[in-house]
Structure formats: C-alpha cells, structure tokens
Amino acid sequence: MFKKLSLLLILGACSTASFAESTVGFSLSREHADIGNIASFNIYSQFTDSRTNFGYQLGTGLSAAEITDYDGYVDHYTAWEGFGRIGFFSDVSLYLEAGIDIGEMLWLDDDHHHDHYYDEHHNDVDNFIGAGFGLSQDHFDLRVFSRYRYIDGYNLHDNQDVFTGVEFSLHF
C-alpha cells in the first residue's frame, strides 16, 4: 500500500505546478563510493517560482551500477530510479534530494510467491537522500552532489555508503 501511495504522490505532484515556470531536462551523472560506481541517464521536469527561484524537480532515469559485495564479487545491475529535488534553482543552485528504485518498489516480491527465493530480512527497496550544488549557464547545468545510499540485495545486505558525483544536464 505504501509503495503505491508513494508513486501516486509523485505523479500527482507533477500536475500541481501551475504557479511555476517549467523546464524539461536530460542529465548524465557519475557517482563513486568505496563500494562501487553508478552511472545514470535521467529525464526530469523542473518547476520554479520566477520571483524566488525556489522550486522542485521530479525525474526518473536508468542507472548502471557496479557494486562490490562482502565476498569481493563485483555485482553489475541496472536500476530504474525516481527522484525528487527541492531547493533554489537559478544561475547557482542548491538543493536537497531523495530517490528510490522504482523497479524494486513495483516488482519486489512482498507476497512470498516464490518462497525458495524469499529472504524476509534482505533485499529491501534501494533508496537515497542527498544534497547538491550547481552552476547554470543558458541551457546547461553542471552539478556536484553527495548521496547517502541504502543498497540491499541477496549478496549485499543492508549496505549504506556515501556516494559523491557530478552531473551534466541540458534543459529547455
């Protein structure tokens, strides 16, 4: 129930931006931590109050990750992530963000249909919170960010690490 409600809130927020100027953007990012690397391609909408530059972004993207588990094995996976950012977006941007692995949220086997694969203590939905700073020139943005990521899986249990990265975006 919580997963479906979260998705409805994200979609509903997209339609509440009548007060704001809106833009659409595409971004490429790369982030790194001691446990691995993540590269992402994102599409986002930005809604900003033209008087205060206060606004928010809602976006989604595909991420390719290389994460090292506790046994030293490098796990390669792709994730469909969704994120939201709130902050000041102008020539200089400062924002807070949160995101979740939408694919895991929608298709995680919570109903125990496959009991031989199910482990009730592991493989929770991956998520992150973070903050970023950016510079904007015309239709281009360059941002640096830091994200506290919770990554969980069958061979990587309850792993939490801080990822830092850079993002380049083009918006219209």
Model description:
By secondary structure, the chain is mostly beta strands. It has one domain (2-171): Porin, CATH 2.40.160. It has 2 helices and 8 strands; from the N terminus they run αβββββαβββ. The longest helix is centred in the N-terminal third of the chain and has 13 residues, at 2-14. The chain is elongated, with a radius of gyration of 17 Å. The chain starts with a helix and ends with a strand.
Give the helix/strand layout.
Elements: H1 2-14, E1 21-33, E2 36-48, E3 54-68, E4 74-88, E5 92-101, H2 102-107, E6 127-137, E7 140-151, E8 159-171
Antiparallel strand pairs: 1-2, 1-8, 2-3, 3-4, 4-5, 5-6, 6-7, 7-8
Sequence of strands across the biggest β-sheet: 1-2-3-4-5-6-7-8
- Corresponding CATH architecture: Beta Barrel
As for the CATH topology, it is Porin
Give the C-level CATH assignment. Answer: Mainly Beta
- Which sheet architecture does the biggest sheet show? 8 strands, antiparallel, barrel
User: What's the SSE pattern?
Assistant: HEEEEEHEEE
Number of discrete helical segments: 2
The number of domains is 1
Strand content: over 45%
